[in-house]
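ESCALATION

Customer reports they have been waiting on this structure for their group meeting. Please prioritize. Original submission:
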Amino acid sequence: MTGARRLSQAISEGDGISIIALVADPSAARAAAEQGAEGLAVRLPTSGLRDATGLPILFRVDASPEAARDAGADACLIVVEDHDDEEHLEDLSRRAHELGLEIVVDVHDEDSLADSLERIDPEIFLLSPREAEDDETHLERILDLLPDVPAGKLAIADLPSTTRDEVLALERAGIDAVLVGSADVAHLVGGAPPAV
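Update from on-call: job pushed to the front of the queue and completed.
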């Protein structure tokens, strides 16, 4: 059942930072789960994914809540600045909640973060480094956004390519999870890569 697995619960439970792995098929989902991922993200509906894992799934596309549900996701992504029409954003939020989906709001600057809080007050933020200054690393951009996330809300760093050192820096700063672009996550969670 969609929405039965709570992304917010998966990334807020336990010690340390959680890893959310972007996967394309059931075998990648199983590999990510075995290596310690606590959530998955998909860009397309993926047949057999639900049977392959019990991890919560984020539909990593700014699409309708119905598309996220049809993809078997537990959470849907909304990019706030892509929905300037106030009623449209509120409608997306309402429909997602009615379908039992959690909302993950993609923000890239202080204005989009503040706008999302004012308009739909989301529980989970995906902090994106897009439009970072030329002299600013993706990690720095995400860390600059973090203080604007209110206490009690969850923050996910969007770093498709990252290192264990960056993950540790994000953890020390108070980030709850990191969304990475690979199912190979053992080196990010501190475990050894699996034997091949």
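Sent to customer with the following note: Residues 39 and 55 are 5 Å apart (CA to CA).
Escalation resolved.
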